[in-house]
Specification:
- By secondary structure, the chain is mainly beta.
- The chain contains one helix and 25 strands.
- The two termini are 24 Å apart.
- The N terminus is likely disordered.
Length: 292
């Protein structure tokens, strides 16, 4: 894996492999947690590169996020449900199937524990006709411990990777099928309003994350590159996935100065059959901010 870095930082280092298809990476408690989507499991990779399974998810894990009390929240694509993992048991948190048009996809959980979950709008791998997706907000009532959910924006084109600003007021989402990243203002009650385009892109954006300068790192899936796009829309850095699909990224590690890059050696046709070989690389970068 090679990169173009204006400040001549170190080259990306291989952290872990023996992964099928890594998505939604999240840093927590000294390790990187991620959905190994087509192995139907949430996994964790430690600093020495050891990959272990945390919990099997029969409904196929997609977006991940950590709630304020430390529980892991998991969006499962096929059954369209949210699940919590407390280290011992996988518990149904919310059934979102009544709201969902397609499959549940990536997700970001903000500092207040609100989950913004992407609904693809259609099942791409099943060959369904494309239609607009939406974003569902799910939040736990702290007294009843019941998750309440509702749609907070519609007409998003295959919502995928997402981020929330440190103040909880801005939401970015990759609209994969539209080749763009959009930006919304988050209202006090969690609605997504005042939409605008953050970046038009030459390929399908997948996962993304935010750094302290307001720049986004965005995985351009089929192009096989990770782009750092500054707040003014300028592309400042490009890191190649060396012929693999560029799937997702996040900032974590000590002081959030490590960029974790998820990639996969597969094709879209092979992926539809669950055939893939994933890898995780790391790269020094400006510190992360907000969520994930």
């Amino acid at each position: 894996m090679s990169g173009l870095q204006p400040d001549a930082g170190p080259a990306p280092l291989l952290l872990g492999e023996r992964i099928v298809y890594p998505e939604s990476p999240r840093w927590k408690d000294g390790a990187l947690w991620f959905s190994d989507v087509h192995d139907y499991a949430v996994k964790r990779v430690s600093a020495d590169g050891t990959v272990c399974t945390v919990v099997d998810v029969p409904g196929r894990p997609a977006g991940l996020g950590f709630l304020p009390d430390g529980r892991l929240l998991i969006a499962s694509a096929l059954d369209r449900c949210l699940w919590t993992w407390d280290g011992q048991a996988l518990t149904l948190a919310a059934d979102l199937s009544r709201l969902t048009r397609g499959l549940l996809n990536d997700m970001v959980v903000d500092g207040a524990g609100r989950a913004f979950v992407g609904d693809t709008g259609f099942n791409l791998m099943a060959g369904e006709r494309p239609r607009p997706g939406q974003v569902i907000l799910a939040a736990e009532d702290h007294r009843s411990r019941v998750f309440r959910s509702r749609v907070v924006t519609t007409d998003v084109v295959f919502p995928n990777g997402a981020a929330v600003s440190p103040d909880g007021r801005v939401y970015w989402v990759a609209e994969t099928a539209a080749h763009r990243v959009s930006r919304f203002r988050i209202t006090a009650d969690g609605d997504l309003v005042d939409r605008r385009t953050f970046a038009e892109l030459p390929d399908m954006p997948d996962g993304l994350c935010l750094d302290e300068t307001g720049a986004l790192w965005v995985a351009l899936l089929r192009k096989g590159e990770f782009w750092r796009i500054a707040a003014d829309g300028t592309t400042t850095d490009i890191v190649s996935a060396d012929g693999r699909l560029a799937v997702a990224c996040t900032l974590g590690g000590r002081d959030r100065r490590t960029l974790f890059l998820c990639s996969a050696d597969t094709t879209m046709a092979d992926l539809a059959r669950g055939t893939s070989s994933g890898q995780m690389h790391t790269l020094a970068a400006p510190p992360g901010a907000g969520w994930p």
